[in-house]
Every structure is written in C-alpha cells, then in structure tokens.
Amino acid sequence: DTGVSQDPRHKITKRGQNVTFRCDPISEHNRLYWYRQTLGQGPEFLTYFQNEAQLEKSRLLSDRFSAERPKGSFSTLEIQRTEQGDSAMYLCASSPPEGPGIGTQYFGPGTRLLVL
Amino acid sequence: SQELEQSPQSLIVQEGKNLTINCTSSKTLYGLYWYKQKYGEGLIFLMMLQKGGEEKSHEKITAKLDEKKQQSSLHITASQPSHAGIYLCGADKSAGGTSYGKLTFGQGTILTVHP
Description:
The complex is a heterodimer of chains A (116) and B (115).
Chain A: E1 5-7, E2 10-13, E3 19-24, E4 31-37, E5 44-50, E6 53-57, E7 65-68, E8 75-79, E9 88-95, E10 106-107, E11 111-115
Parallel strand pairs in A: 2-11
Antiparallel strand pairs in A: 1-3, 3-8, 4-5, 4-9, 5-6, 7-8, 9-10, 9-11
Chain B: E1 4-7, E2 10-14, E3 19-25, E4 32-37, E5 43-49, E6 55-58, E7 61-65, E8 71-76, E9 85-92, E10 103-105, E11 109-114
Parallel strand pairs in B: 2-11
Antiparallel strand pairs in B: 1-3, 3-8, 4-5, 4-9, 6-7, 7-8, 9-10, 9-11
C-alpha cells in the first residue's frame, strides 16, 4: 500500500493524558498537512509542513498541540493534557511537489481520538 | 476567511436516480476539490477544478466550476449504493491557487442510496 498511513487508527485516553499520533505520507510527497474533523463537520486545517519546515499553524493549534516532521518524512502530532473537546478525527494528508497532481492533497484513514 | 456552503446537507435517493450536490463560496475559488468520505474513514480525492467553466468527469460523477468561479456542482448519474457516503468540497484559499497550502472545507453532504 503506497497511500498515506496513520497510526494508531483509534485512541481512547483519559483527560489530562498526553497522546501522540504518527503520519507517514506518500513517499515522494514533500508537503504534509494535519486536519481535525468533528462529527458532522468538514475537516479543519491545523498545520502543514513543506519538507521539515512547518509553514503555517492554525489558531486551532493551541499551546497544547505540537507537530513535528524532523527529517521531512513522517510527522507526529502530540496533544498534551488532553481535554474532552479534543475528541475528534485527526486526519493527515500529503501532496506532491510537481507534476499533474501538484497541490492535490491525499488523505490518510485518520486517527479517531476519544478523551474520557 | 473563505466560507464554503454545501447543499443539500443530506440527500436520500433511489438507486438509478440522478442527483446534484452544490458548493457555494463567498469568494472566488482558485482551486476547488471534491472528496468522498465513508463514515469513520479518510477522504478519497475525486476531482479538482481550477478554471471558470471547467468540467471534469470520472465514471458516473461529473464536477463543474461556474464561469464566475464561485459555485461548483457535483452530479452523479444513475446512482448506485456504492456512491453512498459524505461528499466534501474543499477550496484553496490563495489567489491563483498556487500556494498549495491549507484547504477550507464545506460541512459535507451525506448521500444515501437505497437499492
């Protein structure tokens, strides 16, 4: 499978705990995006990387959220001191640097987070 | 910020019927993307439109972008149960559509197809 992969697919945690999600983009894609989706809504942008550089962060990304892409390949999204309002589907996407698909974002299966 | 409004919010059709989903923007659309999502899963890319009046088709699904580039429609011909899911439109906010940055999405249209 050469698509975007995310791990874990599901995570249940207690309020106040830290969680970390991983995203592996399509191998030749240099841009990587994180979105959050709540029930009945479209995805909301959180942040994106071009190679290892984090180019934009949404206001939704509070100080408790941090994302990294240390070697320009996989990325991690960490949420510290989780709150019940963090319960959502966290989606990762990647896009190619050139060619006919440039700019098109291809999404992973998502990580569904439930904070109790 | 770019607001995208989708209509209808939900749609129930009988297998074999045609249907249309609309996506309207408050600002000019420079890159408009259509995705399909099954409940609890990721988004599947369908089509991307950039030019006013552009139309693309894939199998029984046709997407159009109007000349003013503020409205797009997704039309499904002879719907099948496999078409069921959530359809989302997303837009690149940048003028010229070349920043390849974040997408702003509509709230989605839930399609149910009864056999």
